[in-house]
Structure formats: structure tokens, C-alpha cells
Amino acid sequence: MITVKPSFSIETKLNGTEILKQLEKIGRTCYKSENLINEESAEKFIKNIIMKGHEAIIEHYSVTVRIICDRGVSHEIVRHRIASYAQESTRYCNYSKDKFSNQLTFVEPSFWDISTESGRKRMEIWQSVMKYIEDKYMELIESGAAPQEARSILPNSLKTEIVVTMNLREWRHFFKLRTANDAHPQIREIAIPLLDEFKRRIPIIFDDISIES
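and the corresponding C-alpha cells:
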């Protein structure tokens, strides 16, 4: 049994300045104001269209992100409809094989404070259940069950890898929902640092999205 923390990697090569220039050129088609383009105009133009809610323009650029999370979190991610997904399949992946280290991998819960007695107790219960599931999954495979049959006992805590492609407008929607204070703690664990990275790499477009404490 392996436990991991959630993580992400941005697969798209991002040049924030060039992205803004490209979007400005597209956006100015609406007004036929291409003559106003200069070296400093892109940031002001994009900031203005976002402020006015004209976000259709930023749909013209998409970003792909690879996310490691548990399957419960992945179920929330795929509820975002304007996106493309490729996800690790429990139907075809046989976790008893060497390439999976002959083990199941689970994402460690982030919401229990293991410095407290109650938090440690909950974590111990979780670990014992995950270990039991791993043992029974392997027994099913050894008995001749196919991976698509054995997966019926796999839990939300199972690690999955999902590649997500969304346009910038949908990423804005994703971050507004998934960094909110009432979002699930484990999706916030991914969404908050991912938003910070988007803000670092792409000027203007995500600056108005604040993270609730």
C-alpha cells in the first residue's frame, strides 16, 4: 500500500505575455480596432474585457494540466462540462502488476490533524480500511477476477491521474468554485496552489480571483 499527496503539473508551455497579445488580436476583431495594438496595449485590453464580463474572448486559449488526486476529487473535476479529460482507468489498469509496484496507491486525506488524538485515530482507521481493500483487491485478481470486476471494491481514496484541458474562461469558473471556502478540502488542496501558479504564469486573467481563507 502506497500513500501520496495530491499534485499537478501544467503540460502547456505558457508565455503569459504572448497569450495576452494573441487574445488582444482576437478580441479587437470585434471592434476592428487592430490599429490600436502596441507593445503595452494587451494587458489593458484584456483587463478591460474581463472587468466588463466579455469573457468569450479568453475562450480562444486553452491550458492542459495533469493532476494527481483521489477518485472522489476527480469526480468533482469532471463535472466541469466545457473541458476535455483523459483519466487513468481502473477497468484496464491491473494494480497487481509490477508497473504499479504490485500495490494500490491512495491519496492521503488532508482534513485530519494528526497532531491530535482524534485526528490520529481517524487516520489509523482510514489506513486500516485502505489496507484491507488492497488485500481483498489482490485476492480477487489472484482468484481470476478481471481488473474491471475487482475495481468494484475500490474506494474514493484511490489515487488517479487525470489530464484536464480547459479554455481560460472555464479555468476561471473552475477556480471560483473550487477555491471557495465551502469547496471540498481535498479539491482546494489542488485548486489553490494551481491558481497561484496560473497567476504567476499568465498576467491579468486570474488576478481578480481571490482565495477565501
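(Above: one complete record from the training split.) The chain has one domain: 1-13+62-213.
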